[in-house]
Amino acid sequence: MQRLGPRLVAAIGRQEWLDRPSYRLEHVLTLLLNGLGGARDRVTNALNGVWLGHPVHPPLASLASGALGTTVALDALNTLPVRRSANSDDTTRLATYALGVGIAASLGSAVTGVSDWQHTHRQERRVGMVHGAVNSVATLLYLQSWRDRRRGRRGRGVALSGIGYAITAAGSYLGGALVFGSGVGVDRSGERLTTPAWTPVLPASALNGKPVRVEVDGVGLVVCQSGPGEVSAFGEFCPHLAAPMADGWVDRGRIVCPWHGSRFALDNGEVLRGPSASPLPRYEARLVDGVIEVRGEEVAK
């Protein structure tokens, strides 16, 4: 697996034929979200995990995996000769309940996962497409397993959930490659500035209404005007997918990511609109004799 896994992920990432269906799916999702009107931002923020401070998909996926693993373990326990007693009925019911929880968590994981996936690109988008398709097949098997168990066809239900769990394991490997290999869903705002001393970085006259990139001790920042006679300093990259914030813009008290439209408050860097779930690092900044100075202690949120 140490060699086969990365090769498989790389091979999937090269499948350009996946681009057409993936972008069609994204367009459908965009139309559905735009149809929500004024509730769009609230819904997308909830799905992206703005309220949680990080994406919602990983904890839901963990809950699904745990519940489904419990189902498989209880099914295996119920096959042991020592369990063939009156207690086996209780174990069977618990397995069915755990399967129901796993299905519900899987559906929630799918919805939040698609919300995260629609902002990926190229190789990550292709791997994410296959990841979602594989997990969808597994979820369908779990649904049929639950139906079979409820109708008394326990043997087939057990077999289907076992097959589904094996497929889930394969899908989880692809998900792990997206997170740990490509950084999808992690904070990618970059290195933090730790220099505690006030450091002059730019004449105030150089501000042109947009964020301007500066560098202090090898760490990139962006500075911008946040009000009359006021300036703000932020991390160089958007936490979502490391978009350069110097290419973004300032709009009504918000700094906007140039790639996917995440919006952050100028006064504290908090997320006002996703897909970013993590705040934009903000640093203290001031004007001294027409020169912008910053220091590296991140402003407490």
UniProtKB/TrEMBL annotation:
Transmembrane domains' residue ranges: 94-115, 127-146, 158-180
Claim: Metal-binding is one of the keywords in the record: yes
SUPFAM superfamilies xref list: ISP domain
InterPro entries xref list: Cholesterol_7-desaturase (IPR050584), DUF2231_TM (IPR019251), Rieske_2Fe-2S (IPR017941), Rieske_2Fe-2S_sf (IPR036922)
Keyword Cell inner membrane: no
Positions of the Rieske domain: 198-294
Gene3D superfamilies: Rieske [2Fe-2S] iron-sulphur domain
Protein origin, superkingdom: Bacteria
Alphabetized UniProt keyword annotations: 2Fe-2S, Iron, Iron-sulfur, Membrane, Metal-binding, Oxidoreductase, Transmembrane, Transmembrane helix
Single GO MF descriptor: metal ion binding
PANTHER family: 3-KETOSTEROID-9-ALPHA-MONOOXYGENASE, OXYGENASE COMPONENT, IRON-SULFUR DOMAIN CONTAINING PROTEIN
Protein name per UniProt: (2Fe-2S)-binding protein
Organism (species): Mycobacterium asiaticum
Organism ancestry: Bacteria, Bacillati, Actinomycetota, Actinomycetes, Mycobacteriales
